[in-house]
From TrEMBL:
Organism: Mucor flavus
Source taxon at top rank: Eukaryota
Transmembrane segments: none
Keywords in alphabetical order: Oxidoreductase
Family indicated by similarity: Belongs to the short-chain dehydrogenases/reductases (SDR) family.
Protein name, UniProt field: Uncharacterized protein
Pfam families xrefs: adh_short
InterPro entries found in the cross-reference section: NAD(P)-bd_dom_sf (IPR036291), SDR_fam (IPR002347)
Length: 312
């Protein structure tokens, strides 16, 4: 399905509070620019302190406090908790989370040294880090009565790229995670979707052109492929923020525009008469069961936060 680009339609996000991971540059910064333009408050979490300048610039341009920055490593729960708590302290809560932070370090791991830490880092940032950010986001949003999470995966979440083995695996992981957030709208009024761009002209691409100082021949090809204009990615993000009917959806951003990628249906051999009956029963139990899980998670989180603030 091809969707029209709708960047001219400017829905107001006045009063909304957005946490953006990796908002210090590239795609994350472009999303922050648009959120600020539409009246939202932005909380930037990035590993690079450049996010501090970005937040300062927004405050200067608007003449009020609309943005804050916290140095954040999304692979750490403590950093994620501090980031979302900052949004609550500064702006009263969280409505939107753009989970965009990612690293390219260790993207091509097939013949890299057999080193545990080196191997795990890209997974800990791109996949596990995104899951950690989303779990903290869900707790803060559930408390507020709902919200919208947009994950930035990649075309590499669907295609294979021999020169980016580990990176591709992390981006596939995000697709599976997003598609499994099935019950959140009914449980806590939270929606999770993913935008998956093909090549975009950011500093990210520069960082993967050589591996261990040796040029990677894949980019002789990749550099000939048309890039995705940033407005298409912004359209994808704002489509999901604005459309309350979307959840667990993945949209590809191509040089020609947006195309939704449907999840494959379950294979007929898995759905027997018995399993279909059992599925109906499970679906009736799933929402109350998940609501109970959320309520326990909220209680645990609140206790942890109280304990942490009493220690400080
Ligand atoms: N550029 C592309 O061609 C392209 C294509 C498809 C998808 N993407 C995805 O888009 C997103 C943004 O990419 P970009 O091109 O703007 O890259 P970029 O390198 O310009 O920006 C990455 C951002 O993530 C932050 N970051 C890195 N590691 C972090 C960590 N551990 N904790 C917190 N922040 C961290 C950086 O500080 C930076 O702000 C990424 O998820 C990337 O995988 C990029």
């Amino acid at each position: 399905m091809t969707l029209q680009s709708s960047s001219t339609e400017l829905t107001s996000f006045e009063g909304k509070v957005a946490v953006v991971t990796g908002g210090s540059r590239g795609i994350g910064k472009a999303i922050c620019d648009e959120l600020i333009k539409r009246g939202a408050k932005v909380v930037i979490g990035a590993i690079s302190d450049k996010g501090q300048e970005v937040a300062k610039q927004y405050n200067k341009e608007t003449g009020k406090k609309v943005a804050v920055f916290l140095r954040t490593d999304v692979s750490r729960y403590d950093d994620n908790k501090a980031l979302f708590q900052l949004a609550e302290n500064e702006f009263g809560g969280v409505d939107i989370a753009i989970l965009n932070a990612a690293t390219s370090d260790g993207s091509d791991n097939m013949f890299s040294p057999l080193d545990d830490k080196l191997e795990e880092r890209i997974f800990n940032v791109n996949a596990v880090g995104l899951i950690k950010s989303s779990k903290v986001a869900i707790l803060h949003m559930a408390k507020r009565g709902g919200g919208s999470i947009v994950c930035i995966s990649s075309a590499a979440g669907f295609y294979s790229v021999p020169a980016l083995t580990a990176y591709v695996a992390t981006k596939h992981a995000i697709i599976g995670y997003v598609r499994s957030c099935t019950f959140l709208p009914e449980v806590c009024n939270i929606r999770v979707n993913a935008v998956c761009p093909a090549f975009v002209d950011t500093e990210f691409l520069d960082s993967v052109r050589t591996v261990g100082g040796i040029p990677e021949p894949y980019y002789d090809f990749a550099d000939t492929v048309p890039v995705v204009p940033m407005p298409f990615i912004i359209d994808g993000v704002f489509k999901y923020l604005s459309d309350n009917t979307t959840n667990g959806e993945t949209v590809m951003a191509y040089p020609t525009g947006l195309e939704v990628r449907e999840a494959p249906e379950w294979h007929y051999s898995l759905l027997t008469e018995n399993s279909l009956k059992a599925q109906d029963i499970y679906l009736k139990k799933a929402i109350p069961h998940t609501k109970q899980q959320l309520s326990r998670a909220l209680e645990r989180y609140e206790n942890e936060q109280k304990k942490a603030s009493s220690i400080q």
